[in-house]
Amino acid sequence: MPYPVYILATLGAPRNHHAIFIETRNTHTNTLTGAIFQVTGNIQTGMTFNHKDINTNPEDDIDFISKEFIETIDEQDLDRVKEIVNAVEPPRKQFHGPKRIDPSAPLRRRQEWT
Known about the structure:
- InterPro entries: DUF6540.
- Residues 90-114 are annotated as: Disordered.
- Pfam families: DUF6540.
- With 114 residues, the protein is mostly beta strands.
- It has one domain (2-113).
- It has 2 helices and 7 strands.
- The strands form 2 sheets. A 5-stranded antiparallel β-sheet has the order 4-3-2-1-5. Strands 6-7 form a two-stranded antiparallel ribbon.
- Strand 6 and strand 7 form a beta hairpin.
- The two termini are 24 Å apart.
């Protein structure tokens, strides 16, 4: 069974938060389930990778803004996709106080990781 993959946008400040959402469905109860892949943190402290399985519709979240379809994956490829996403390095700390650590490097935030 193919799983749809989306980019989720939720309310954030000063920029919205983006995450990858792979939608699965519990075939016994026909309820929406899925996996969210994201980084958390900020450019002042650095970011860490986070994966969580959910059993609710992200569109029901009060902070939900949008869900953009990007692709489908085969069910048997889900573990491989998790490995690939895990291998993408989250953005590092890019500031020390108000000063950029490496002014020649472009800023990488959560949206760029996603």
